[in-house]
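To: structure desk
From: M.T.
Subject: fold request, one chain
Message: Could you run this one when you get a chance? Sequence is below, nothing fancy, just the single chain.
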Amino acid sequence: MVDAIVLAGSPNTGPLKECSPARYEALISIGGKTMVEYVVEALNSSKKINNIVVVGPRDELAEIMPGYVTVVPAGNSLLENLMEGLRHLSGTEKVLMATCDIPMITPQAIENFLDLCSGKQADIYYPVISKKDVERIYPCTSRTYVSLKEGRFTGGNLFLFKPEVVEGCMKKGQQLVAARKSPVKMCKLLGTVFLIKFLLRQVSLREAESRVSTVLGVSGAVVISSYPEVGVDVDKPSDLQLATEKLSMAV
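Reply: Done. Structure tokens follow.
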């Protein structure tokens, strides 16, 4: 089993602010529950998750989080939030980090990702999902895809990592995460030669894994998940409408 940190401190200042008056994206309501509640419930229902820490607006979260969740106030950066969360999970070997904007995530998707990671030795694990698998379940969703030798993939919103590597790789890691919606920007961070090969569609999944590991200074592993819920986040009105429709059908 692993512990989990849910990042829930992003203010609702982007495209979703026209859909909800909530001050934070985590607190946007879907079918009577907030987005972060769906994520926490999926984590708690997984047989592979132990402790759960949610980092975000403490007062608002304290009113809705169940007793088994530790609520930690958010800082000013991703690194601050992760480090603060980790301080409440001392001694854990690996930690699963989830964003708060994947309300359609399921315990099965979480467990599958952890199972895929268990077959590899690495410091950081990151899931990708093929366009075919995303569109098999969510044919109308709009995602950002990267074209590799093996096909087209979108990134996931789960990370498994060893706590001791966070500080050393977080600066560059934040840059990569910020560029995730623009494959070209991301490739620029990985070097000119890599960018050229990427534009020529000559990069394989393993080459990408190796280059990111080198840039971050850690051992990284990319795993291919067949669960689109791992990568279908809610960051624009059309995503919110999709989540509302899908989650109302599940009730």
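Reply (cont.): The chain has a mean pLDDT of 88. Let me know if you need anything else for the meeting.
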